[in-house]
Amino acid sequence: MDALPMQEQTELDYASTQTATGPGGEDVHVMHGCGHDVHVAALISAAEWMSAHRDQWAGTFIALFQPAEEQGAGAQSMVDAGLTEPVPRPDIAFAQHVLALPAGQLGVRPGPFYSTAANLKITVHGEGGHGSAPHLTVDPVVLAAAIVGRLQTIVSRELPPGEFAVVTVGQIIAGTQSNIIADRAVMELNLRTYSEETEAQVLAAIDRIVRGECAAAGSPKEPEFDFHDGFPVTVNDDDASERVRVAFAEHFGEDLQPIDRQTASEDFAVIPEAFGTPSVYWGLGGGHAEAAAGGEEGTIPANHSPYFAPEPGPTLQAGTEAIIVAARAWLA
């Protein structure tokens, strides 16, 4: 469920040998490079324990398995399919995710935990022609370069110091060969913030800059904007986070460690928002004590690395117990 299109290089006995059909019909290797198999296994185990120990808690425990997180579509698809109709409104919603922390460790914090993410394709138009006569053209490559440079001033010159945001131009596609000036350029952008307000400010700045540079270059057509694969900010409820932290500290002791805000993104927040309920999302360590194959000594391969390999024993143990401990903080 929700594997990534990459070839596993961990050299483990159970390393993935699975393939899937790629966008062009080709076979591509896939692996669980983000720990979603761990999440499923831990939740199944926690549900089994809760079912077998009904004498130790009272209330309703709902085990919810969310697909398609990698595309930012799974949570919304569940809500769109009517999730809130058969499922009663919970008092609290929990989620956990394996991160590049030592196996068995956990971390929880109040407030923003995961950033928003917005992916944006921008097409800017020029007037194509021969490379020997640029004066008869509007060069979209030069236009795109000007936009890239100006975009970098949004964070450094328009946001207050200390306000987090990232604007990345991850791809530019234009032209076919050296002596042809193309008639368009396509840019793929990714931006991340810790608040919807900051995201709106950054998006407005991107729109203003792109349109302004197009006008300055004499672009013959308005730029085109296509938003896709957006993620909301994940914000932990302050009071509920403290309640979970206290329960974790009592049960896990020193394995509960401080954790920073994460610049990755997650669509889980769509579910508690649909129910109108508070939520707590925590990080679960899965890193091997020894360096994985191909990794530097003492490093833990990050999520989406071909060497990503949560250590099964302590990761599954802590992941299962974390769900039970958090649930019993409300249900015991």
UniProtKB/TrEMBL annotation:
Q: Where is this region: Disordered?
A: 1-28
Entry protein name? Hippurate hydrolase
Native organism: Micrococcus terreus
Signal peptide interval: none
Show the GO MF annotations: N-acetyldiaminopimelate deacetylase activity
Q: Where are the transmembrane segments?
A: none
From the broadest rank down, the organism's phylogenetic lineage runs: Bacteria, Bacillati, Actinomycetota, Actinomycetes, Micrococcales
Keywords carried by this UniProt record: Hydrolase
Superkingdom of the organism of origin: Bacteria
Q: Name one GO biological process term.
A: diaminopimelate biosynthetic process
Start and end residues of each Peptidase M20 dimerisation domain:
117-213
